[in-house]
Amino acid sequence: GSFFLLLPLGFPLALLCQDSTLTGTVFCMSAEELKAQGNAALQQGQVEEAIRLYTRAISLAPRNETFYSNRSAAYLKAGMYPEAYDDANQCIMLKSDWRKGYFRRGEVEASVELYEQAQQSFTKALELEPGDKVIEERRDECARLHQAESDWKKMEPFVWASGGITLALLLLVADALLPTSPMLQSPVVYAVVLVIAVSVAMRLARLKQSHTDLNKASRLLRKDGAPGRKQKEQKKKK
To answer: What is the reported pTM?
Structure first.
């Protein structure tokens, strides 16, 4: 008897499953079908739709690392770095011996110019998949960018210091042109001004570098300011 009571529900449910575009739902698909549709949407540039499909697949199979890897790629394409970073780390947590999680994390880190961390992630991915040319290229590229960044960080304070010296010289010239008696004619006074100008310039350069580094790292924080999974793990270890 219950069969006949449920029969009237079968037809509208069949319609819903047959054409999910009528309501925008995807509840009649399996997790793998949702992933396949998400892949197709991502290839077509429909990033938001891909994220929606992958999210639904994850709700059906929350222990499947592939779904997190794919959604991480979609989040990255959408410029949603914290979400992409979290999904990459979740992928690693679920399957730490799979290269893809480390590769995804490296891609996110490289996108926010954290080249040293990205190089480490790509190196780990390469350990799990030796000889992968794509990973090798990304690792080497990040290594070059990290080295260039490190070289500039060492040189930048001195570039700013040269600006401080130039400023001190301009002050000396301006002081000499004053109609009243110049104040910087004394070598001792000028030396003090020069040291102060250079010190301030170098300090400003280092403050700028610190601000830049913090700004890069902050791009991996969610809008609520909560740290991603990797940062949480590091805090627990401390």
So the answer is: 0.73
